[in-house]
Structures are given as C-alpha cells and as structure tokens.
Amino acid sequence: xxxxxxxxxxxxxxxxxxxxxxxxxxxxxxxxxxxxxxxxxxxxxxxxxxxxxxxxxxxxxxxxxxxxxxxxxxxxxxxxxxxxxxxxxxxxxxxxxxxxxxxxxxxxxxxxxxxxxxxxxxxxxxxxxxxxxxxxxxxxxxxxxxxxxxxxxxxxxxxxxxxxxxxxxxxxxxxxxxxxxxxxxxxxxxxxxxxxxxxxxxxxxxxxxxxxxxxxxxxxxxxxxxxxxxxxxxxxxxxxxxxxxxxxxxxxxxxxxxxxxx
Amino acid sequence: xxxxxxxxxxxxxxxxxxxxxxxxxxxxxxxxxxxxxxxxxxxxxxxxxxxxxxxxxxxxxxxxxxxxxxxxxxxxxxxxxxxxxxxxxxxxxxxxxxxxxxxxxxxxxxxxxxxxxxxxxxxxxxxxxxxxxxxxxxxxxxxxxxxxxxxxxxxxxxxxxxxxxxxxxxxxxxxxxxxxxxxxxxxxxxxxxxxxxxxxxxxxxxxxxxxxxxxxxxxxxxxxxxxxxxxxxxxxxxxxxxxxxxxxxxxxxxxxxxxxxxxxxxxxxxxxxxxxxxxxxxxxxxxxxxxxxxxxxxxxxxxxxxxxxxxxxxxxxxxxxxxxxxxxxx
Lengths: 262, 330
Description:
Chain A is of the alpha/beta class. Chain A contains nine helices and twelve strands. Chain B has a single domain (86-329), classed as Orthogonal Bundle (ABC transporter involved in vitamin B12 uptake, BtuC), CATH 1.10.3470.10. The radius of gyration of chain B is 20 Å and the shape is globular. The two termini of chain B are 15 Å apart. The A-B interface holds A 13, 48, 51, 53, 55, 73-74, 76-78, 80-84, 87-94, 97-98, 101-102, 104-105, 107, 109-110, 137, 140, 153, 157 and B 76-77, 80-82, 137, 139, 208, 211-212, 214-219, 221-222, 224-229, 267, 271-273, 330.
C-alpha cells in the first residue's frame, strides 16, 4: 500500500505553532519506512494524520491515492494495522481477548469468530512469539511482551500495511531486535511498514527509507545513507554527532559527542 | 466463573425473588389467595393488592434495577473509569431538583405524572448541560471533561436542593428526603410503562454495541484504528445510558449502589467482555433490586426500610468479598 502526505498542516487548538507545518512525503508500497526526529517534532501527529485519526488543518493524507477520510473505517482497519504509542487498559483483558480484537473489522455486528478468524489469531500469536501467554492477563506482562501482544493484534487484522508508533520504546536489545526483525520480515513479505522510532542506528540498519522530522517540517528524506549524515543530524537534534560506518554491519552508526569534542 | 453458570444463577435468583415478591407482602395473603387473585378475581381487595400493588412494583424493580446496572456498566466502559456509576454525570442531581421543586411547591398532588415528569425533565437538563460542556470544542467529545462537568453540575444541583429545602416546611423536607433515598413504593402500571417504553429498547441498543464497547476499553485511539466509529459509539451509548438512568430516577428516585456494584461484581466473576457483561449486568441488577425490595418490604413490616439502605447493606459486603477474592486470585 502507498501512503502519502500532501502539504499536510496540523495545528492543535491553542497551539503556538502547527505540529505539522506543510509535510509532503510518500511511503512506497512494500517499503519499511522509519520516521525519526527529536521529541515534539511531530512524529506521532504525522502517524495519526496518516491514519485519519486527526483532522488536518490543511492539506491531506492519502492511502492508495484515496483521501484517508473517505475510507470506510472498517475497510481501512482490514487494510492497515496500527499500534498507537501507548494504551492504558480500563479493565483486565487476556492476551487472547486482546489479539482477538484485531478481528473486529472482519466480523459482522453479531457474528462470532469463525475458523478463518481463529486461524488468523493463532498465526498472529505465533508470529509475535506470544502463544504461551494466551490465557494471561495483559497487565501482568512485561513491557516487551505487551508490545508484542499489541503487534500481534495488528497482525490479526491481516493487514496489507502496518503503522507503529515507537513499538520498541523502553525495550531491551533482545526484544527490540525481535520486533524489528519481525517488521523486516513483514516488509519482505510485501507489507508496507511505517515505524516511528528514536533509534537512529537501528532504523538505518532495518529501514529501506527514512524520514527525519524537525519542528513539524521535513528535514531529510531518503535512504539511510542519505538521511544519516553528521550535518543533517547535528542540525536537527541541535547536538554535535559523529557518523561512522559500523564495521560489523556496514551501516551508518551515530555517536553523539560530549561537550567540546569534535 | 462460567458465563452460563452465572446466567443460570442470576436467572434463578430473579425468578425466586419475583415469585416471592408476588407471594409475600405487608398484608398476609395465602398462596391460594394470591393464585386466585392472579387468575380470576374473587376478592376485590386481594386482586388490588396483587395486581395493582405487588406486580407493578416487582416489574418496576426489574426494569429500574436492570437499567441502572446496564447504565453503570456502560458508563464504566465509556468513561474508562471503574468508579463510574449511572449518577456520575449529575443525572440524579438534576432529577432531584425537578422532584424537589414539585414537592416544595405542593404540585405533587396534581396527578401521578407530575413528580416523575419533573424528575425526568430535571435529569434531561443535567444531561444537556453536561454534554454541551463536553462537546464545546466542536471536536471529539472528551470523556474527562464530561466527568468533570458531571461532578460540577451535580454540585450545583446539590446547592439548589439545599436552597429549596432551607425555605421549605418540615413536611416537605421529609417527603423530599424519602424521595431522594429512592423507593419502588409508588409503583403503578403507569410508571412501569414509562420505564419499560424507554428501558427495553435502550437495553437492546446498548447490548448491540457490546463489541465496539470492548474496543473502547483499550482506548479511543486504538478503537479507531481497529475500525470502530469511536465518536458515534461514545455519543450514542452515553446518551442512551444517561436516559435509562433518567427514566429510572424519574419513577423510583435515587437508588444507589445497583449501578456501581452489580456491573463490578459481574466483571469480577466473568471478565470484561461486554457481550456477556451487559446482558448479565441487566439480569443481575434486576435480580438484585427485586430481592432488595423484598427485604425492604418484609424485614420490618409493616414499616418499609428505604431500598437504598438495603442495596447498600447487601451490596457492599458482597462486593467487598468479591473484590478481596479477585485480588487474592491475581
């Protein structure tokens, strides 16, 4: 699936400056696309706008060349699985119930789960390696496990694209890598994957293309080699960095410098 | 607990309390007298007691108890707050102001409709006020604003009631206090009709919204991504639950604890899947309130204990036990 923002401006009520100030970007079909930028640069706002969860002030978001607001909600949920940055459960829920909710857009108002639904749920649980937790209460899981359950729910939607807001936030390296590997596999299998992240190095290793946001505008867009440069990063993050090639992976490695280092 | 087990248990409890409610009362009647009154009329007085007093009162208990518990479960899901209950949006305050005004002005005698209608109008006023504040930004309805507005509006109505009471006679004050405590004693076929016309279709709509309500429990943003019409579900369900509450308060006053305790207890027993939670809350609320009313009528007969006292006396211990058990289980 193809995601596109055209001159997208989003201004929250009462805000001094717009959260997104004229963003134009395109995510090609089947691409693993990483969105990066400093805190408050508009990453989550962009994700919500792409998914039609926010009304743009001007401009628009398009999925497969259709304005996102014109998509039927359930149709969109069958095509795109999205995982928000955080969610707080109002009530306890088992892992099975949580992942089962991914089938909502596929089910009629009164229909129960059929074989196809159960199979989609089982596949999603296995894919995210959470099958053993099926009966557990989601709130008793660790951060990494919970994150995988939420991604499993998105996969249970059997979507053609995934949109994830900081899915590896506060995870240890094993869980972070496991999720990124899963996303890479999904993209290789043909899904379009958009992932918001803070991890410059890992994004450079896993993503096909990267978008670097700065104060609601596009600071850089392109392949990791094009985006991850000392000059661009130092400007966007207002902090000196050194970019070298990692001998182990051959991809760019970003090292923030101490005060006074050059 | 298994859903089916709980449904059976609640169904049996409801049946027993309905039958016992018809059979027993402050006027001692034998089973055969009750049976005769129900089938063919022989003694006019027995017929009146059973058909005009006991039966409508029980049916009203079923409708009001079920409605309050259902509204409570819905509010808890939509406000994402386990402490939410049907009166949280100031609905009881609004209804009380309506009722108190009628009582203070001495209009209660103007016919059996004047008090419920005034209470219903007051509840509607509260609902309109609270919802207008919560949707003032013209964008999505913020449930936190809704909650806060509800609390403030309730405080305002309390002040109104205090003011009216301070300039009223002692007799008025007494009837107001009795009304506010809630009672099914004024049940008539008219009030049953008033409650049923609204509660039954509203319950059907809410239960049909069970699946999107499940999604709302994970959060509005996620519910949106999963394909739910978040604003539509929120507005529809909140207004319907608010009106069920208004209908209940109008005919039975402010009966506490049913709307808070019953959905919680059911949730602790079978989990938070609203497809089971909502219908079982209705059943549980109906069983609980008819049973409470039976105790209220019989415990100190011929004196009636306010039903709110019984719902608290019975509901609180049950709830605390369940809460403790569920905490020990995790």
